[in-house]
Design brief:
Elements lengths: L2 H23 L1 E6 L7 H16 L4 E6 L7 H10 L4 E5 L22 H8 L2 H11 L3 E7 L4 E5 L14 E4 L3 H8 L4 E4 L5 H7 L4 E4 L1 H6 L8 E8 L3 E6 H6 L2 H35 L3 E4 L4 H6 L1 H10 L4 H9 L2
Parallel strand pairs: 1-2, 1-3, 6-7, 9-11
Antiparallel strand pairs: 3-10, 4-10, 5-8, 5-9
């Protein structure tokens, strides 16, 4: 082998090694999102990718796949755990079968208000739930808003639990929500969301519940003119990363990703508040009577049998429920 050939061969090996190092260091993350591209969650997720790309100088990049094109929510949660997806944004409701700690946020009236939920989720409560998620292979990066679900109906405003008595109420198919209505002597009717408008219109049910943007965007306010802001369900959502992906990041990149996640949570909350305010203005202009339930204590007291049944079946969550209730 001539000296020139040896130099050429060595140069090629060095170049190949450098190329391999770059390929293994740089990461292109794939993100799951169920919402359309102009939704507050979607906009905030795109901001995460932009910030991570900028702060890592392109060493970590990503793409958010919107509209649930990478699978439904339970499937995506499993993909995150396995590392087949790198990050995603999920409601804590569907995460319950995987992470028991997330079930507590589905308890009715567990949070007194949306600001109270933010305060607790950004502190010790969020840390406890995040630890439960991490034990299942999911790293929490930030807690997003999903609004507060409130009652709307075609009969009367709801101000106290007694106002619920006798009303036929559509609820999601979840025993907790059926029990919530039964505890106030209402009649719970689990029903697909797509059937609610016609059922309200024809009197199959008197009442339903959801957040103001959903109430407005589905035109339910046309057939149920009383919106009572009970805020009985305040279920946060999580911007999450696969723990497998997280563990591949350098410590510096982990710091950047965590900071970007937390910043995006604040951004998403602002966007959600704007969207919610716009929806309330729309329904009021359309003739909806809106009332705010300031005193939640009678509703919380009415939930005692619901909590008792839940904790009897999930005794390991007693301390976490107490942590939330004692902090208010």
């Amino acid at each position: 082998m001539t000296m020139l050939a040896g130099i050429t061969r060595t140069t090629a090996i060095v170049a190949l090694s450098a190329g391999f190092a770059t390929a293994t260091t740089a990461q292109n993350l794939r993100g799951w999102n169920i919402h359309v591209e102009d939704y507050p969650v979607s906009i905030a997720m795109e901001s995460v990718v932009d910030e991570i790309t900028e702060k890592t100088e392109g060493e970590v990049t990503g793409k958010v796949f919107h509209n649930g094109v990478l699978g439904d929510q339970p499937d995506a949660i499993q993909q995150i755990r396995l590392g087949a997806l790198d990050f995603g944004e999920f409601s804590l409701g569907p995460m319950g079968p995987v992470v028991p700690e997330t079930n507590v946020v589905s308890l009715p009236f567990i949070f007194a208000s949306v600001p109270e939920m933010y305060r607790l989720m950004d502190g010790e409560v969020g840390d406890a739930i995040g630890a439960g998620m991490e034990a299942k292979g999911i790293k929490a990066l930030g807690w997003y808003a999903a609004g507060a679900r409130s009652f709307y109906n075609s009969v009367r405003p709801i101000n106290t639990p007694a106002d619920v008595e006798g009303l036929k109420m559509r609820v999601m198919s979840n025993d907790l929500f059926v029990d919530m209505i039964s505890a106030m002597d209402g009649n719970a009717t689990p029903m697909a969301f797509a059937e609610v408008y016609q059922s309200l219109k024809t009197g199959v049910v008197d009442r339903a519940e959801n957040n103001p943007p959903s109430y407005e965007s589905t035109n339910h306010y046309e057939v149920a003119k009383y919106l009572s802001l009970t805020e009985h369900l305040i279920i946060p959502e999580c911007l999450c990363m696969s723990l497998k992906t997280w563990d591949k990041l350098s410590p510096d990149h982990q710091d950047i990703v965590m900071a970007a996640g937390r910043a995006s949570a604040n951004y998403q909350r602002e966007l959600w508040a704007e969207r919610e305010a716009a929806s309330l203005e729309t329904v009021k202009a359309g003739g909806t009577e809106v009332n705010t339930v300031e005193n939640k204590a009678p509703f919380q007291d009415a939930m005692t049998p619901v909590y008792d049944g839940f904790l009897q079946a999930n005794s390991e969550l007693t301390d976490l429920v107490a942590l939330i209730r004692d902090a208010q």
